[in-house]
Amino acid sequence: MTSRGRVLDVEPADAGQLVEDLRAEVAPGDALGLALAGGVGLGLASGGAPRAVGCSSPHDLVALIDRELRPRWVWWSIATASALVRAGVRPGTCWDVAAVHRMLFGGWRAEPARAWAALHDLPVDEVPVLRPVDLFTSAPTDEELDDPVLPGGHLRPEWQEATWGWTPARLARWAELARAAGELQRARLATLRSHPVAGAVARAESAAELLCAELMHDGLPVRREVAESIVRDLVGERPRTDAEAAQQRAARDAAVLRHAPVRSPTDLRNPAHVRRLLRTIGVELPDTRAWRLDALRGTHPLVDALLEWRRAERVATTFGYGWLDEHLGRDGRLRGTWSGADGAAGRMTASAGLHNMPAVLRPAVVAEPGHRFVRADLGQVEPRVLAVVASDRALARATGADDLYATVAGELDVDRATAKVAVLGAMYGATTGQGGVALARLERAYPVAMAFLEQADVAGQVGRDLRTWGGRLVRFGGGGGGGDPDGDGEADDGGPQARGRAAARGRYARNAMVQGAAAELFKVWAVTTRSRAARLGASIVLCLHDELLVHVPADRAEDTADLLVACLHEAAGRWAPGSDVRFVADVSIVDRWSDATA
User: What angle do CA 373, 379, 381 make, to 5 degrees?
Assistant: First the structure.
């Protein structure tokens, strides 16, 4: 190996010396910038001159450094995490520049050039893009290409192309810039003085992206034969031709229409047709949403048949044979694309039906032989989160009960169902109907929490950006709260449509302040569990809103269940230090996911 700051060609026998050299600079938890390219090498940046390391197996070297030094890896995005996970490397901790950018600046887009521009107060809409060379432009020289920062301060677009020609020296420079971006982000977070846990939340957001990379790689255990049996019972045998599929569709439709007292052409996939069909049995509805129909279950065979049709139709069109063929691997794992934040309030998202799988298919989610699932679901998390973010001591006292809604019902002198509707309605802006009756009592019992929600509502209505408890920016487009709260270039005239849009923004703001904070707590819990559960051979296989599903060796299931509760207490202490709000989780050990959700 050569001296620091030059390219180091590392063979397996030299890796130990590189680790020892780094040990003098990197203590456990210290930031270590990383950029890597398979077959080329990697770049490391610890704060001084970056190291450019040429090696054929950069992932193995990262694994060694991680095991020996336990740094906090700093990289640009989940792409680096995914490359490591695919190579069998599971880093301990990280700082993901893209994840923290979304938290600091809002929105979804977080490519390196955009994050760099935002941190350097450069116009984001002027981020350079790669353009073809023509008569009016000239190609940059090799010397110019070796510098990723353009004279104006923006990042050079060539460095962000998938086909970019990486060299160890370029990887070192890219790692150095990632580490610099991370430092700037930490400085920005430190300025959010009204959000003192922003730094801890940023670390959890980063680790959540690493968890997403693992979820994408590992997948959810699903028994194909069970899933196909469920699909077959609902929609019939796998169709061999389009004609057979059409016949099955017609048969499903006929099973509903035979209950209609008047036979007329009806398209069950057309809401207007369905409303007309329901009128023939004396049912008038403003729309055909599932919850409206479900409230009428048992009143007429047509309604029951329509509900069954909807369940079968959803499976046939979205979660049927084609879905299994596309997303379920031969290893019995269902895989989709995961993201640590949806770009708005920050909830984790997943594709391939992982976040909206019908309950009827959950019996097919079966633990592998010798394993079990530990399922944990946060209990009544939204009002408990509200007690924290609003600093409402009265509501905090109510969280001491396992059933918070029963305690609130006693305070309001209403039944539990009404109390629940009132609390949820206050958080989401539904303040009429059953919950509206108790709203005045709710405001008297918990005035601090209700005032917090009202303030968020007003901010949303005038288009003023907000930050969640942990510091995530939630954009509303208007920014300053002037005459253009929609950010559409036109001033609202105060008419009915404008008032409706403002009211919708207000409801969204209420929701975002609670749901966004709940998402933060959930991710702190999830990544804490990821870290602590590894020693038990347990791995998270699903994150669903407020629920964790952990796959664990059968003989470690009880220990894992206890660990999930302990991790929740640890996470709550990090996310809301000093708070006396109590968080609870319903934990069960099952063989099938449906056993816990039946």
Answer: 125
pLDDT at 11: 60
Show the tokens assigned to 169. Answer: 């020296």
This prediction's pTM? 0.91
473's enclosing H/E stretch is strand 473-474
Domain count within the chain? 4
Cα gap 531→100, rounded to integer Å: 20
Same domain (yes/no): 152, 230: no
Q: Say yes or no: 138 and 241 in one domain.
A: no
Say which amino acid occupies 424. L
List Cβ neighbours of 57 (8 Å cut-off, separation of 6 or more): none
DSSP string, 152-173: TSPBPGGGGSTT----HHHHHH
Q: Which of 516, 500, 413, 397 is nearest to 449 (CA)?
A: 397
C-beta separation of 575 from 470 below 8 A: yes
Same domain, 254 and 302: yes
Specify the CATH number for the domain of residue 92.
3.30.420
- Within-domain flag for 530: yes
Same domain, 398 and 310: no
527 with 476, same domain: the answer is: no
Q: Are residues 533 and 445 in the same domain?
A: no
Strand partners, 379: 584
Range with lowest mean pLDDT among 272-286, 296-310, 489-503: 489-503
Asked if residue 414 and residue 487 are part of one domain, the reply reads yes
Which distant-in-sequence residues (6+ apart) come within 8 Å of 17 by Cβ? Answer: 1
Is residue 98 within 8 A of residue 139, CB to CB? The reply is no
Q: Which two tokens mark 98?
A: 């893209």
Closest CA to 51 of 96, 92, 15, 94: 15
Do residues 110 and 102 make contact, with C-beta atoms less than 8 angstroms apart? yes
Q: For residue 265, what are the domain limits?
A: 224-325
